[in-house]
Amino acid sequence: MPRSGAEARRRLQQAALELYREQGFDQTTTAEIAARAGLNERTYFRHFPDKREVLFDSEADLREALTQAVAEASDGLQPLEILRHACRKAARILEANRPFSEPRQEVIAATPALRERELAKAASLTAALAQALRQRGVADRLAVLAAEAGWAAFHRAAGDWLAGSAQSLDDCVQQAFDDLRALSATAGPQR
Amino acid sequence: MPRSGAEARRRLQQAALELYREQGFDQTTTAEIAARAGLNERTYFRHFPDKREVLFDSEADLREALTQAVAEASDGLQPLEILRHACRKAARILEANRPFSEPRQEVIAATPALRERELAKAASLTAALAQALRQRGVADRLAVLAAEAGWAAFHRAAGDWLAGSAQSLDDCVQQAFDDLRALSATAGPQR
After folding, report:
1. Across B138-148, average pLDDT
2. Minimum-distance CB partner of A184 among B77, B116, B185
3. Taking CB atoms and an 8 Å limit, are B183 and A179 in contact across chains?
């Protein structure tokens, strides 16, 4: 048996990812995941409430890192620059998880039930980011827009990086936020 | 019996919305929806594949209106201005549906299963918008970001308008796109 809860979680995640890739998400049971991890099913449910959540364990860390970095960003930054700073800091979590993240992303893209969960996580994460921006005094109507645009940039950066871009994740984040700014900044007035 | 398929769809949507509000989504069956609409359950499933889809019937029209307006926008516009134009055009669909849209949005916000479906629809719609931008020659990496930011603006505008803003929907759309531009445009260089 693994010595710690963290080790059990790690083994369950690895086992789930392997089985989802080998035989598909729908065909895999929690009992099989637990068995592959050398654990029993009760232990599985002590750590994860369902078959989907096991692939989203790092979301809580990511949310914590992002919202804390928003809170700690320098004064005087515009909302998107606060988010750029936060995404660069949080990128370290993705980098640490890369061997897991690549196959994970493939499984999610191929599995509607996991894609749905991913979208729900993204919505909850952008709501948390918007709230962190509001707590810094960003106006409510700007906070939500900024959080959604910033998350879109971070998501694209992670995708570019995982897709085998030769760039570092940090470069991908910088490029995505530069693109986001360029999208708006170069548009002349239309009204 | 209603004379046309369109009339049957409309009655099923209205019946579903009423029942979801009165007794909750989880407690409502497709048989009850059909009965309330004066139809049988087989007719329900001829029009909608499940209990969720009945509230998302206008998404296809919205997608069609948005992507067509992207294709037809003037030359020389930046991506976000193309999307501003498209959202202003598509706003007419929302305006025509307002008596249905307000209670619908309340039910969706209160029902996780419907919220999940709404997020999936939004993801599919932004993918279609990105594709429409690409077909106009917008670079792939800008197209996805622009579509997600533009959709965030449109979604906020619709929310402001439904929440009882004194403004017209068109004013809400303009304000949201102005805010989106201001988010980026006023940020000084950070690198």
Report:
1. 93
2. B185
3. no
Q: What pLDDT is stored for residue B187 in this prediction?
A: 45
Answer yes or no: is pLDDT of B183 > 50: yes
**pLDDT tens digit string along A42-59?**
999 999 999 999 999 888
Question: Are A187 and B80 a contacting pair at CB < 8 A?
Answer: yes
- CA-to-CA dists, residue B119 to A123, A139, B8, B114, angstroms: 8, 24, 26, 9
C-alpha span between B4 and A26 (Å, rounded):
39
Predicted confidence (pLDDT) at residue A117 exceeds the cutoff of 70? yes
Residues in Cβ contact with B66 at an 8 Å cutoff, skipping those fewer than 6 apart: B86, B87, B89, B90, B125, B128, B129, B132
ipTM attached to this prediction: 0.84
pTM score of the predicted model: 0.87
From the list B30, B10, B5, B35, the residue with the least C-alpha distance to B20 is B30
pLDDT at position B190: 43
B141 touches chain A (CB under 8 A): yes
Distance, CA of A82 to chain centre: 18
Cβ-defined contact of A80 to B156 (cutoff 8 Å): no
CA atoms within 13 A on the CB side of A182: 13
Task: Give the mutation candidate from B115, B118, B145 for the A interface (greatest A CB count, under 10 A).
Answer: B145
* Contact at CB, A185 and B190, closer than 8 angstroms: no
Tokens standing for residue A34? 């637990």
